[in-house]
TrEMBL record:
It comes from the Eukaryota. This is DUF868 domain-containing protein. It comes from Nymphaea colorata. Pfam families: DUF868 (PF05910).
Length: 241
């Protein structure tokens, strides 16, 4: 069992690489891909010396690069010099921005992950817990760095909603949808979104602020993360019964 890296462009999968845990497994390489007749498009990766924490993403010692017609258009990781040397490409025309992250987490009771809410900010521990056993009314709690930032009581009536909290002085809006946990199929997932900023269009739209929490949540789910000026973390939480 290992990890995989998948590249998706315009909702179509163009590149998927399996990273095996074996000692002599190939963890670096390149692949040419065809995207609607564009100029030469290549994906380069080097995960040979990558160092991992508790999550699936490498912390350092790696690079993943997307090169179009010998121009670097996307570069992830800290081995920047190695990436440019390997690809023999020109420098980035502009800095890339981390817009969104999607993650699937599996647990019996407490769902944990890590996230950075601003560029060069520190990594925060996030823990989500839904308490149902022995309670007349289920309740939901969210902790960031072991500090309770959100608690929802009478969850059967508030299974969808949103609330803004402060993390490092930055407003972070938390949306939750736990309908599947309470009323749906046993294998259904709950969905959580941590969003650091609203899009210019939404934040300036008075009609959006007048919507109910449920309607706001549905509106945001239907919009693409690229519409935001901030960062969005989307979590799919699955019960491991």
């Amino acid at each position: 069992m290992g990890q995989s890296m998948t590249m998706v462009i315009d909702d179509a999968t163009f590149c998927k690489v399996e990273v095996k845990p074996w000692l002599f497994a190939k963890r670096k390489g390149c692949r040419a891909i065809d995207i609607n007749g564009c100029d030469k498009v290549e994906v380069y990766w080097d995960l040979f010396s990558a160092r991992y924490g508790s999550g699936p993403e490498p912390l350092d010692g790696y690079y993943i690069a997307l090169v179009v017609d010998r121009e670097m258009v996307l570069l992830l990781g800290d081995l920047r010099k190695e990436a440019f040397r390997k690809t023999n490409s020109s420098s980035l025309g502009s800095s890339s921005v981390f817009l969104a992250k999607r993650e699937h987490i599996l647990s019996r009771s407490v769902y944990c992950t890590k996230a950075r809410f601003r560029d060069n900010g520190r990594i925060h521990d996030i823990a989500i817990e839904c308490e149902t056993a022995g309670l007349v009314e289920p309740r939901l709690s969210v902790r960031i760095d072991e500090k309770m930032v959100l608690q929802v009581k009478r969850l059967a009536w508030k299974f969808r909603g949103n609330q803004t909290v402060l993390v490092d002085g930055l407003p972070v809006e938390i949306f939750w949808d736990v309908h599947n946990w309470l009323f749906g199929h046993v294998i259904g997932s709950a969905v959580f979104m941590f969003r650091t900023a609203m899009s210019v269009e939404l934040s300036s739209n008075d009609s959006f602020s007048d919507l109910s929490p449920v309607s706001r949540w549905q509106t945001l789910k239907e919009r693409k993360p690229q519409a935001s000026l901030g960062f969005s973390l989307i979590l799919y939480a699955w019960k491991n019964e």
